[in-house]
Design a protein that fits this description.
The complex is a heterodimer of chains A (about 375) and B (about 140). Chain A is of the alpha/beta class and about 375 residues long. Chain A has helices at about 25-40, 60-70, 85-100, 120-125, 140-155, 160-175, 190-195, 220-230, 255-270, 285-295, 305-310, 325-330, 335-350; strands at about 5-10, 45-50, 75-80, 105-110, 195-200, 200-205, 215-220, 235-240, 280, 365-370, 375-384. Chain B has one domain (about 5-135). Classes of the chains: A alpha/beta (about 375), B mainly beta (about 140).
């Protein structure tokens, strides 16, 4: 196994509604935790990569702001954006910079403060993550796009609204155990199935919770990582792919091609297969998204993902635990911070430090992080 | 007025394919076809990513198409509230897929994946134009 780039520090703010502070203070929370976890000082950080979706902020070019606030001048800093998968893409860039020998330690910092705008305004901004010339003029929004995928999956594979509701129940089960989750209440099947329709067949409880939050990763070159950390978590596989922004360009709506392509690349680089994954974080922005992830990642054959949730195989004590931190559905989805938070969860799991959410002795973990409605796919495989 | 006439809310005023809205006025929903390699595009575009030619011609989307999927939205982004509820959909025509809305003449119970649809231009408020899917 390659031991050339590792994650040596992780941090995350609480994911909450209505953070009472500015983005710099929000970013500081995750930064402080990650730096203390890694036991590095700002001077030891060779470069910082700031990740978010820019349309939520008044602040232009937030990397400059945050590098100053976090004491990371005069080292290079810049911005990486792939909407909801920004900080997974940040890790990919950090890995590349370290492998190229440019830096020994690189910081990846994702953040998003979403509460400054209304839900309708948020949907309008998210909707503009579609093709603004040809699709947004129809009044598109994220739930409607994923609802089209759900409808296509139902039609092809006989999946039901109840199957999706079981995914929400699982998310709530673990959100209750996660002190940093925005939604910590239990949810039962009936509550999901009787909640308001947002865009058929997607209902309120099929949707993730918007939140404010930040997440931070300290990434280091092999020799430095072994000096810094007793439990470095190694980057074993990185996969990234893209698919058409327009729905007109998609071959099918029953899965996400960008996820399948990214998974193939990540498995190949890591030299492992889906059967080797002990714990996973997948991008459950909607319940259907988690179901498609089971199939796109090869945890199940197309159309058979429902068996995993029906048989509770994706619970903590199942065959392949998925989103045992509450996922985007309950933990929350502060866009730019989401990938970093997913990566943090897997790092803690592999170190055996996930507390009440810990699964039994995992050696290899996987993170599936999607930007937009399957525009950008990032799959990351980490190992002890 | 140019391309900002397209849709309930437009986010793009200028494009080299703004003839699309004139064709809607003429009762046609059209894509573009590369004169060099023959590749057909919808949404229409000015440039061919297949052979890098910019020599394109218009072709009318002829039906019927088959509905790939749809969803009826009960909430809307800012600017679309007055249209609620509305149903977005994707349909497969001979060489291209078309994204749009279902006609309000159709109840949700009348819509199913695989049904035959036609795509037709519609006039919206003011000078605005768009297109929608009807049962074929």
């Amino acid at each position: 196994m390659k031991r050339d780039v590792a994650i040596v520090g992780v941090g995350q703010s609480s994911f909450i509604r209505g953070y009472e502070g500015s983005i710099r203070e929000l970013a500081f929370e995750a930064f402080k935790e990650a730096m203390e976890d890694a036991q590095v000082t700002p001077e030891e950080v060779g470069a910082s990569i700031v990740c978010s979706a820019p349309e939520y902020d008044k602040q232009r070019t937030p990397a400059g702001l945050l590098a100053e606030y976090l004491g990371l001048n005069p080292q290079p800093t810049f911005y990486v954006e792939s909407v909801c998968s920004s900080s997974s893409m940040g890790l990919r860039v950090a890995y590349s910079m370290i492998k190229a020998g440019l830096h020994k330690v690189v910081l990846v910092l994702g953040f998003q403060k979403m509460s400054g705008i209304s839900s309708a305004e948020s949907q309008e901004r998210m909707g503009r993550g579609a093709d603004v010339m040809w699709e947004s003029p129809f009044g598109t929004m994220m739930p409607a796009y994923y609802a089209m995928h759900a409808r296509a999956h139902f039609d092809k594979h006989g999946t039901s609204e109840a199957d999706l509701a079981h995914i929400r129940v699982k998310a709530a089960t673990y959100g209750m155990l996660n002190p940093k989750a925005v939604f910590r209440k239990p949810v039962d099947l009936e509550k999901v199935l009787t909640s308001d329709v947002i865009s058929s067949p997607i209902k309120k409880y099929d949707c993730c919770a918007n939140a404010d939050g930040s997440a931070c990763l300290v990434v280091a070159a092999g020799e430095v990582a072994q000096e810094l950390s007793e439990k470095p978590i190694w980057v074993r596989g990185l996969g990234a792919a893209s698919a058409s922004l327009t729905m007109s360009g998609r071959e099918s709506l029953t899965g996400l091609r960008c996820a399948r392509e990214a998974a193939r690349e990540a498995y190949e680089m890591a030299g492992v297969g889906p059967e080797d994954i002990d714990v996973a974080e997948v991008h459950d922005c909607f319940t259907i998204a988690e179901l498609m992830a089971y199939e796109d990642l090869g945890f199940a054959e197309p159309g058979e993902g429902v068996e995993l949730i029906r048989d509770k195989e994706t619970y903590a004590d199942g065959k392949i635990p998925v989103n045992v931190d509450g996922g985007l559905l309950s933990k929350g989805h502060p866009i730019g911070a989401t990938g970093g938070s997913q990566i943090r969860t897997i790092v803690l799991q592999l170190r055996g430090e996930a507390g009440d959410m810990q699964v039994k002795d995992p050696e290899i973990g996987l993170i599936h992080n999607i930007g937009g409605v399957g525009i950008y796919g990032n799959v990351t495989i980490l190992g002890r | 007025m140019g391309f900002e006439r397209f849709g309930t809310v437009s986010f793009t005023a200028q494009t080299k394919v703004d003839r699309f809205v004139d064709l809607l006025d003429e009762g046609k929903v059209a894509g573009t076809k590369c004169k060099s390699c023959g590749k057909k595009y919808f949404p229409p575009r000015a440039d061919c990513s297949n052979c890098l030619s910019s020599d394109m011609e218009w072709f009318e989307i002829s039906g019927p198409g088959k509905l790939i999927s749809f969803s009826a939205s009960m909430y809307a982004p800012t600017g679309f509230e007055d249209d609620l509820p509305y149903t977005i959909a994707l349909a497969n025509f001979d060489d291209v897929k078309v994204f749009g809305r279902m006609s309000k003449d159709l109840e949700e119970e009348d819509i199913e994946i695989g049904m035959d649809v036609a795509v037709v231009p519609v006039k919206l408020r003011g000078e605005k134009v768009s297109y929608e899917f009807k049962k074929a």
